[in-house]
Amino acid sequence: MTLKQMEEMDDENKWSELKGRLVDRTANINILGGLAVAASATFLVAQAPTDFADWNYQFPYAFVGIANASALLSVLSGLGLLIILNIMDLHSFQEMRERWLSYTFLFILLMMPLFFLVSASVAATIGWIWAIWFGDKLWMKIMACLVCAMCIFTALVLVGVLLRVAKALVAAGASSQEFKV
Q1: What's the rounded Cα separation, in Å, for the pair 68 and 104?
Q2: CA–CA separation, 38 vs 32, rounded Å?
Q3: Phi-psi map region of 155: left, alpha, beta (phi>0 left; psi -120 to 50 alpha)
Q4: Angle, nearest 10°, between helix axes 100-135 and 90-97?
Q5: Cβ–Cβ contacts within 10 Å for residue 20, how many?
Q6: What percent of the chain has pLDDT over 70?
């Protein structure tokens, strides 16, 4: 569903369907975030799991800690989003979209759980790569470089697709809606 379709929504059934989809998406992100919190917290207090990664430096642990904090923020923002979605009805949504600041905050809140989960993934990856680099095993360094190349390629593909979708939405007039200040 595009922003334009959301803005033109006037049927309570359509609103309930959209709200259900958003709640399901947020619940799935919260499950992943909860698993990431548990895994990173366990990792921070356990012995180093391998001999090919040297965890005797603060830098890798700092990034695993950042991953833990980001995953926790993902869960908390997702919980806040679930609470807001459960109390929001079509009328309150229509009132919010009339004010650009409220509508912007709602959009930001919709994106926060996913943003923090992605941040947790990136931080954990950086921590692992640095621990592998400190481990000084050539074959693991090669594997880490290959994984980094795949991550960069995937990120470029995702950004390219998102830009293409955004361009299509702009061309369709989804962003031409004027908001009251």
Answers
A1: 27
A2: 10
A3: alpha
A4: 90
A5: 11
A6: 87
